[in-house]
Amino acid sequence: MITSENQPLPNGYASVGSSAMSELPRWDPLWRAIIKNMRLDADKVWSLQHWRRWWEKLTPPEQLAVLQKFLLVVVLVMASGGLLVLFQASHTVSQFRHPTMVYDQDGNPWFDLHDPLGTHLKLSGMPAHVARAAIAVEDRRFYRHGSIDLRGIARAAWQNLKAGGIREGASTLTQQLARQLFLTHHRTFSRKLQEILLSSELESQFSKDEILEAYLNRIFMGGSLYGMPDAARYFFGKDVTQISISEAAALAAIIRSPNFYNPKVNPDRLIDRRNVVLRRMSAEGYITPAEYERAVREKLKFVRKRVVERTETYFKEFVRSELVDLLGEEILDEYGYRIHTSYLPQLQALAENAANQEIARLEVSKQLYKYPDQPELQVALVSIEVGTGRIQAMVGGRNYGGSQYNHVTQALRQPGSAFKPVLYATALLHGYTPASMIELPAVQAPTPSIEESNLEESKAGEPDAKQTAKEATRETKSEQPTVITLREALTKSVNSAALALIAKVGKAKTIELARQLGIHSDLPAVESLALGTGEVRVLELTEAYLTFASGGDQIQPHCILRVEDRGNRALYEEKQVRKPALSREVAYQMVSMLRDVVTRGTGATNATAGVPFPIAGKTGTTNDYKDAWFVGFSPKIACGVWVGYDNPHPIMPAGYGARVALPIWGRYMRSTAKSVKHGSFTVPPSLRAYNLCRISGGIATEGCNFVVRPDGAIHSAVYTEYLIPGTEPTFPCSLHALLPGGEHKIWEELKKLLPKIIPPWPH
């Protein structure tokens, strides 16, 4: 019955208007009911009593018509849903055929973005008994059925019925692979349906051998282990190509329940399961009776400590994070893309070798402090191409399998004196020159900072730390200068000079320049900032030094060069964002000062000796030797190294940056000589060379060539300083000017040295 809007309807119905109702066919009670109930209150819509009263008012023909239409809608929805799931399964599997590959800088494949551990091994590269063990125990009819095994399902159902519970599964290798690649492990009907559809698509698009290869490389083996190659290294400490029949059977046994059959938890349980696998291999004819007997008797030897994974995995994860920053999370789910990076495998191998060799040397020396909560000493190294900012090698820690924490990009640590170049660059920007004199507090003049006593191993052996520090202090106190040039202060890393300089330059200006150089971590506005009490990341500090080496341009370090889709269209092209932070003149003066550090300062050790190209850099050590740093560069590579414990603890007695971090840096840089043309540093044409006295900072005189050390030896204090014309000193050196009779004194000293230089003439 049609009523007006103002007249209430029986049974609580709300009116929808006569015009709307008149357009509906009277023989369609289903749609009439839907329209009439569109404006019901929510409580009435979900009321079973309401719908029951509505149903009872319908005649039998009308009820039949409603049921027919309802079933038609259900069928259409299910069919549409099935087609959609089938389409999605087909699309997902077809994408799997085209992996998103990551390439190194030379265009060679590096790794599959969806398999960052890079353990994929061709089926032909694995021993036959590895694949046969998996087939025998997980899907013995693998080559004789399609995506599902109906006979296997029936057999499993019968066995489970007899056992009164779940004792045997019926999933094929293809189904297990589909579940591993695309689905969760929640046991639901919808997940099982998706698994079957995906398995069908895998079988239609890939050969059996391709499916088996993917299965052996991707199947879950417990913890963070995926695939036989990874599990072979973890459990047996060897490559999968080297494992025996017995070991292959043990790996296949783990597949069923990785936690239950973990040999490091319950080895006896795994042995029993391994023997089951061996019996099935024998029954299938995969091994001979003699091989079976030998394999059953073979004692499995599991490694106690996980084999160290190549630390390039830290670099792979950095690639993934940079991709997300550039193109969003969606890129990680896409297939068929090509990602070109700045990664250079030869430099990565050299970086890993340098870190491993030098840390091993420290461990063998038995000088490292041991802590119950610290599993191992950590290391970080990053190598960046000067002028481009391309990251070419990265060591984020000792072992990615043990810790995924990237110490290059994530760890915030105090840099100690490695931060001082930022302060000195600030001074150069505000009117100082390397030859400028800075006045030292009389009480402190000039005591070197803790890493400045050269404690590096010498050819004659390692000196005593305390004795060497006393000698260095005694020598400097004997001279007791009250002023020092900026160059000498940085070369010797004099703490009192740094504190005096930041008082002159200002904390705010120092922090401002640090930001411009690429240090974005929060820095404290305190005087001790001059000594490196602020916390920074290895990548940040190396980026700051990269600015010195790149002529003053701040370049953001990066590794993504180009991203292409399947149509070879570029989704992203490398952007080398260059921001002028320093003038070319100031940048070169910093290079020159940091070169002095490695030739005659705190970095002048055996670690830098023999490097066949120009280098510059700075050591860093924090209180109690909790952090050891060296950051430096050549004309081609900027490299930063940090060593320490995750939870800051003293590393070792006298654990200076020159003893702990610099040897890693030196070994790496020296080893790059064969593959990298380092070239030389270029002096800007706007700078002019001046001969100055290293001690007084004035124009060098003849007497500066004959300076007597406290030990009586004579040396020259003359050096070449590159300055902008107009900023050079205008006064001659007053310390070494030849006074009346001075020539006689010099001649007397020379006569003492001549017999040592020229042997006596034979009579």
What do you see in this structure?
The protein is α+β, with helices and mostly antiparallel strands. It contains 26 helices and 20 strands. The strands form 7 sheets. Strands 2-1-5-11-12 form a 5-stranded mixed beta sheet, covered by helices on one side. Strands 7-6-16-15-14 form a 5-stranded antiparallel beta sheet, with helices on both faces. Helix 12 crosses helix 13, helix 16 runs antiparallel to helix 25 and helix 17 runs antiparallel to helix 23. The longest helix is centred in the N-terminal third of the chain and has 37 residues. The radius of gyration is 37 Å and the shape is elongated. The relative contact order is 0.07. The N terminus is likely disordered.
Could you outline the blueprint of secondary structure elements for this entry?
Layout: H1 18-22, H2 29-37, H3 42-45, H4 48-57, H5 60-96, E1 101-103, E2 109-112, H6 128-138, H7 150-163, H8 173-182, H9 189-205, H10 208-218, E3 220-222, E4 225-226, H11 228-236, H12 245-255, H13 267-283, H14 289-297, H15 312-327, E5 338-341, H16 345-365, E6 378-385, E7 391-395, H17 420-429, E8 437-439, H18 465-479, E9 483-485, H19 486-491, H20 495-505, H21 507-517, H22 538-549, E10 553-555, E11 560-564, E12 570-573, E13 578-580, H23 584-600, E14 616-621, E15 627-633, E16 637-644, H24 657-660, H25 662-671, E17 688-693, E18 707-708, E19 714-715, E20 718-723, H26 742-757
